[in-house]
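hey so i finally got around to running the thing on that chain from the lab meeting. sorry it took forever, my laptop kept dying and i had to restart like 3 times. anyway pasting the input first so we r on the same page abt which one it is
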Amino acid sequence: MESPTKAATVKGYLGSGYKVVASNGHVRDLPVSRLGIDVENNFKPHYINIRKKGDLIKKLIKDAKGATTVYLATDPDREGEAISWHLAAVLGIPLEKTKRITFNEISKTAVKKAIKNPRPIDMDLVNSQQARRLLDRIVGYKLSPYLWKTVKSGLSAGRVQSVATRAIVDREEEIKSFKPEEYWTITAMLANEDDKVFKSRFFGMEKKIELQSKEQTEEVLAAIEGKPFTVRSVKKSVKQRNPAPPFTTSSLQQEANKKLGFSSAKTMKVAQELYEGISLGSAGTHGLITYMRTDSLRISDEAAEAARLFIVSHYGEEYYPKTKRVYKSKAGAQDAHEAIRPANLEYAPTNIKSHLSADQFKLYNLIWNCFMASQMASAQFDTVSADIECAGYTFKSSGSTLRFAGFLSVFAVTEENSDDSESTTLLPELNEGQMLSSKEILPEQHFTEPPARYTEASLIKFLEEKGIGRPSTYATILTTVTQRGYVNKEGKSLYPTELGVVTTELMKEKFANIVDYGFTADMEAKLDDIENGETDMNDILAEFYNDFAKELDSAMATAERRIIKTEPEPTDIICEKCGAQMVVKSGRFGKFAACPNYPTCKNTKPLAKDGKSLKETKPAVPVEGEVCEKCGAPIVLRQGRYGSFHACSNYPKCDFTRQLLQEIGIDCPLCGKSVVTKKGRNKTVFYSCSGYPDCSFSSWDMPTKEKCPTCGEMLFRKKGKPLLICHKEGCGYKQEIQDNET
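ok and heres what got predicted. didnt touch it at all, straight out
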């Protein structure tokens, strides 16, 4: 399998005759230092073993040689199929003898069913992945040197990322060129004979009239002044609102961004954790959702029946529709996997909340509720609309009340430009011919607004509608364009940097196809054709490369340096060396304050971002009674990437540092010295022996004074879980504890 977590989950479903091991993703890839594709020899790729995977590959080869049967159970998509193909090559398994198994959910039933039904590796799937990889490598390695020559050294180009950047640049141009247009509305506050007041909006006459000026509005106001309002018609009806389908990768990323504020990358990371398996205490480890990379809306008959039973038993018969809901996937969707849904409805979010992190619970709850709502009855609203006449002009009023909640009792997808709530405006009882009194006439001036900047959610929706990229690539696309400096994120809004604008303009001018929406979407369709066995990988590569090579030769022959004008972001820090106002610069480890008079003045300072303004970080604090072990200078307390630490005050002449250690009152199980807390990357706490590096003990789980009743070894408190576990290999002892126990 690909993931150690997933391997551990699946191992729990199989007997002692199976060994489940992880490849940790790809084991082979194109070389980093060169193109790795022989374009003159039918685009033959030169794959090499990934450098850091040497020891793992040796172990996998040893495991495979000691087994009677090897099952390749990587993820059930193009990428997973390619990883299995690479693994077969590394392990020396002939293609015709491979046993490829896939499952849409990590459950005991699904895993055992897959083992009983192995298949050969699907080379159409593999070639589709290879074609994408080779296309992206050709664009990246051939185009990047041109960008170094014309824009900025160190830049990299991407086939789909360049199109995503263009979309953001195009939207920014729309915003800048937008010219607001004036328009007016008229709202009449009307009342019936019982003096119940309600709103009615100006519509026009037989056809809608757009009020575009104050003069036009005043003409209407003059005509209706002092005139009676009469109800011309009243329509009452029952309106139905149907639930949204279960999530695909795209719609999950969009909704998690809108409702939870999750980035696409965070959504996919948490979804991966839910798919691979979560420890549910005494219930064991279970995958909680189906495979999270899919654009299909299909769900299995078993899942639909389980949902029906749950809805009827928890909500009532009336909450289930008369016929089972079936959603049709969009044209071109890959239907190999189901939509994203809970793998087992026995594990309701509230019942297993204590076993999930905050983010896991939020996303699992979102997936659970969307799936459940997708199978429920429609919501019903009583609606009333009335046309009201005054001086030949028509005013309209409408209102609705919820008649039957249906799926809304569980979940509603956030609509675009909506506050996610149904109108609850109530109208008084109105009858045709009824006279109404005017309480107030409210004219109001408005101006049209420019289109909103893309958010991650709206950009994903745009890419999906245009057929650009695939569900599994959206998170990577968004991460890449921001990391490469083409796009910045402010709140939820995405906007292009000057680098992004200049690069996009250059690409439009010299490589129009690469950033053309239609061309990129057409390429995605061709990759699908390869997957479906309808076209040859090499034909697609040759067709693309022939035109691209000509464009590249032409562009290189006329390459000119483009100037990027960027205004440095000011800080509120004054340089103590020369008196200038310091500005923000970006370095390897993030932003810092620098003197604008560089290189005359090379003063820099670290920065801490606190909301809107940038301020200097707190100065080093002297530590009383502590001196440097190297030079004897006083020790100071400093702030670093991973929290506080002790350092020599004579830095940079002396580079002595020491991490802050806190004893927890537990002796090291290896050497008997005290165990202390340390901080790793992302400020994550772990436990280590104070005798490091002489003693190698370390653990993410907290050691305790408790002893394992099975083997007598030390028990550890599982990180983030109310669980004591034994670390001794082969023991497997677990004991649930109360959250308030230490």
